[in-house]
What does this fold into?
Amino acid sequence: MEELIFTVEEFTGRVDVYLASVSDVSRSRIRSVADDFGVLVNGRAVKASHTVVPGDTIHLTVPAPRPLDLMPQDIPVEIVYEDGDIAVINKPQGLVVHPASGSESGTLVNALLYKLVSLSSINGVVRPGIVHRIDKNTSGLLAVAKTDAAHRKLAADIASKDTKRLYFALLDGNLKDDTGVIEAPIARSPSDRKKMAVVQGGRNAVTLYRVVERFGRYTFAEFELRTGRTHQIRVHARHINHPVTGDDVYGGSNAFKLKGQLLHAHKLILTHPTTGEKMTFEAPLPDYFEEVLKALRGEK
It folds into this structure.
């Protein structure tokens, strides 16, 4: 069961619309929760149609997801590092991280259940070991917890920004500045519930960037996440009018006939949850990403 608390700031309207914009819970799910008295406004249970105003305090209680019968599967996944507490995985493009309704197999979790002896149980049976996620069509590094103690420590380090996550991306267009900070709140798109967007009143989101190489119509850049919102880099790149190349969800071009966005989690810096050792992991760019860069450089 997940309990979330929100204080309404600049919004007046239906409570289900508000909650869907500031959380990862769908509007239909919120309506179902409200019918079961799981939405409280100022301490009183309300229906999804209830109107909230600035200053209202909302408690949202979301029941645990339905347990899934997850099966270990021998799916090719590179384990960059593993010990008794953690593992670091280099996820390929096209692999979903965890199961969901209608997609209960063929995920990274299924692969981890096959390859690793133990996984933390903090996220329940649906997301065992998963401390942070990367999108299906984003490749690269993510940390996996093998014990509950390791999971709690890694999650705390991400929240406190002790853990650093750096990404390489190819962007459409020529960025004006060599370095910069994108700070814009993110929530579900009011016009398309399957997308995220920069939305006033959304959750705070901060992304740092620096230009690595310029190609005129494209820019090769490095991003550092300072927060961990859904689709954060992709949404922020679109917000500054330089979407990630190949990202058909957020307006990226696809002259190179890509299967997804050119976004790769290339470096992960973390503190080992047991030993306290500062550890740095790096994953080279996938071949398809390198081929695009070579073409832009005029290399064979």
About this structure: Residues 166-264+292-297 form a domain with the Pseudouridine synthase fold (CATH 3.30.2350.10).
